[in-house]
Amino acid sequence: MSAYDDLTAFQRETSALGEIAGRLGWDQETVMPRGAASQRAEEMAAIEAVLHARRSDSRVAEWLEQADPQDQVGQAQLREIRRSYERTVKVPADLATAIARVTSAAQGTWAQARADEDVAAFLPVLDEVVALKREEGAALAQGGDIYDAMVEDYEPYTTGSQIAEIFDQMRPRLVALRAAVLDEPAPQALTGSFDELKQMQLSENLATTFGYDLNTGRIDKAVHPFSSGSGSDVRITTRTSKTDPFNCFYSTIHEVGHAAYEQGIDPAYALTPLGRGVSMGVHESQSRIYENQLGRSRAFTGWLFGQMKDAFGDFGISDPDTFYATVNGVHNGYIRTEADEVQYNLHIMLRFDLERALMAGDLQVNDLEVAWNDRFKADFGYAVDTPSNGCLQDVHWSVGLFGYFPTYSLGNVYAGCLYQALRNAVPELDVQLGAGDTTGATDWLRENVQQHGGLYAPSETIQRASGMEPGPDPLLGYLEQKFGGLYGL
Q1: Which residues carry out catalysis?
Q2: Structural domains of the chain, ranges and CATH numbers in brackets
Q3: Residue pLDDT, tens place only, 73-92
């Protein structure tokens, strides 16, 4: 066998083990008994030790030196394997194992603290997570910016400063649009009680409507909805609330966007570095365009209105136009995942600035709750009422995902570019969505984005699909047009 064959065979086994670790994570957030948390932490640490050893195996460096594929796919495989190897060897094995152990345990501590509204119970383990992640970041950065090293895990070839520049461009127009919208009368709110079993049934219908293949996937419930897996095993979760079925439906559509990306990747790339989404920003572009530009469009909400009437009978909304306004209502709220399109990115900017300060050592964990509450009051104009609506609402920091949050807004920016190109490519889009047919949109996204997996760098993926350099103007123009029309601005 050639060096390239040896390398890719070794990589496939490593990727398969990584998928097993991912399945343990899925189990932990869905059906694992609460009392198993400490054992699961040891299991996650053990498999991380094996993965770290394989990813830093000296033979990988030798194979990389000798391999010389001539085709585009082979060169892309080497690019991604080399990037992973060079990052892995900078992090000591005992540190990688410790992070896996602590973050697995911290996730359970966070969930209980969130349920108990008890920040103090969570801060000690969060302090440990932050210390370990800063140590890891310093090892990766080798004298450079620690937060940049964190971002590289989720959005390769992007820095915190570049993200901050994009956010600085977005913030003034978002704040102005929010102020104008909130000055207008609010649309009719959804009221009443909605059977949770019927929500899950309609949720499954929505998932398949957006192309989710249940033959290689499944839908479960979790506190914090997520998508997990790749290739022929891609799972999603959602959540239900008797008074807010939109939370279930749009969480499902959002996670289907992630899952459709993984299911849509060229099967030839399975269990290779190209067999996963190229970045979390590109991943988020799929979930956000599914959820918002498609799922919350006037055309699609007209179809969804009929589906809800079939499922729940008369639920207090009289017509499709009123329903469209209700689905897209802009209102005060604390929860990022429930935020409307106008305010969502402001929630991300808050988290971006706080986690960047944590990684820089400018903010201490014990001061996080006060810093969060002060920033929220300054940005949104009202005070956080409970910790679960404040710094305890997201799972990310408990599991060490520092540098992840800004990719949500990058995903929105990318989705804005893709949607502009999609509308030009599929002129009958609204007619199709109005009939509950998403295939024009999802086929275009699969062909232009999803099938490529990690073949191209993130910004190149978006540029090739949309025909433009990624930037915030298409997103901001879409938001101003949509909500200007909804609120008569």
Answers
A1: 255
A2: 3-144 (no CATH), 160-486 (1.10.1370.30)
A3: 999 999 999 999 999 999 99
